[in-house]
Sequence to fold (351 residues):
Amino acid sequence: MRSKAVESWDASNSQALPVFDVGVAFVDESALLSKPRREVELAIADIKSIVSSILPSDKAMHITPLEDVFSSESNGREGRLRELVGMINDDTGREDLLQCLRMLSLQKIALENGYAKIMLGSCASAIACHVLSATVKGQGYSLPADVQYVDTRWEVPVVLPLRDCLAQELSLLCELDSLKTQQLLDRPCSGINGLVASFVARLREENPSREHTVVRTAQKLKPFSFNKFSANGYHDFLPSRLRPKFQNVDSDESTLSEVLCLICRSPFSESELQNLESTKHKPQKKIDLYTAYCCQSCHFQILPGGANIYDQFFSLLPKFWTERVDTATASQSSLRDQIEDYLLENNDDEN
Fold:
């Protein structure tokens, strides 16, 4: 990736690849770690040293605390983060929420610094764990959205260039190229995610190719419209020889908009859509609408037990999430006000 970013000949017409610059982002989650602050600072300094030894000195390195996802007006953002995570009783739910906050932090970094895409380091081993854990959590409907090369659900599209590489292969590559790695700040998995990680590790010991088998099986699921390359240019960064492998979005299909979960951005299934529509068409508090915009998995894993504390929970979420629902609701209310005079009452005779 580094060589393609700095060598202009890769942008020749035969390759059809544009020249691009890269930056490195690291989300500092030390506010939630039990490690001494000195160890965390040494680890971050080590990360900076590793990046500077690989990339040219003029490349950007972004280190952002996880609590920065909260609005700048929020006082005590670190305490707010701890309180939000502490309200979740389920270990798996806490890990899933942190994953969502981590993605929101990367989006914030990309938007503030003008990056066009986010490249994640998720490899086949990590994706295989996600496939199995998502199946256990009942996220089968939304699973295809998370295993494709491209995900344009976000304001800044996300790509997975290492999707076909195993963790062992990447570790071997780093060793052969004398690339130092940093694992001190890695968070051990627990709950469902930890059990699945242990299961996949055992599969890897028996036959390393089974991780690829899991990923290839998930790839056979039909992707969503935001996972396909469209005519708006998201396929431009691919070599021309790879483009025929990907299906373009039809013009009619590209106009469809998926309803996404407020927290994890998973697309809603038919039953979840029906529940959302029924909530919209009856008087409700704003907190009821926020709850209806959460998928079933987030209901079970992330939302705290007891509807009486939902108000506090949603008040702690980043405003970016809740404002998105407020904007969608306001748009629908405005549209209904515009056409209200033309709507027929139920007791009107049909002509």
Summary: Confidence is low (pLDDT under 50) at residues 247-256.
